[in-house]
Structure formats: structure tokens, C-alpha cells
Amino acid sequence: MQDTVDSLNQEFAQLSRQSLDVTTNLRELEQELLAQTDLFRESAEGSTEHAQHKNAVRQTTTKITTAKASLESINLQKSNCLERLNLFKKRLEEKQAQLEQHASKPESERKQQAERKLQSAMGKTQKKKTKK
Question: Looking at residues 5-23, what average pLDDT do you find?
């Protein structure tokens, strides 16, 4: 279970890095779009320069849309990973608490408990055999 928690921690860290990278790229694209929009507005309508700037604005807008969709997907994956991570951390803590509680019992009590479980398991096995 600890391996699962470690793996989920690693996955969450990787997704966080991806999110940061995409966010940085998105900001750069938005700055680029502002500059391209200014050039588009300043160029003479009908000129080849105007058409080129218009095309550049469209391409950058498409890149921004793609980056936003990617960021949304990464954030959903992060959220899902965090939920699983919290779930497994809770289970691990519960198992560790049970282990500590079991270890704190006197040895004679632990042996009695183990014998009861063994007898119970053997009784169930015998009942299944008699039913067949």
C-alpha cells in the first residue's frame, strides 16, 4: 500500500509540473496574441501584411484553445489523482494504526486471537466440505 501512495505522489508531482508548464505556455501565447492583434490593427486593410497578421492571430488563438483544453484535462487528472492519493493515505494510516494496536497487545492475547481466527477459518472450511 505504501508503494501505491508513493506512486500516486509521483504521479501528482508530474501532473503538477505539466500544469505549470502548460500555464506558462498559455501566458506566453496570450502575450503573443496581444502583440499580433496590435500588429493586425495597425496594418493596412487589404494588404498582404494584414492578411498575414490575421492568419497569425487565428493560429495563436487555436494554440491558446488547445492549451486551455490541455490544462483542463491535466487539472482533472490531478484532482482524480489527489482523491485516490487521499484515499490510499487514509487506508495506510488505518492499517498502520491496526498494526500498532496489534503490536501493543500482550503476546498471549495475540496468540489467542490468532488461534481463534484459525479455528474459525477451519470451521468454515469443514462446513463447506460437508455441504458438497
Answer: 94
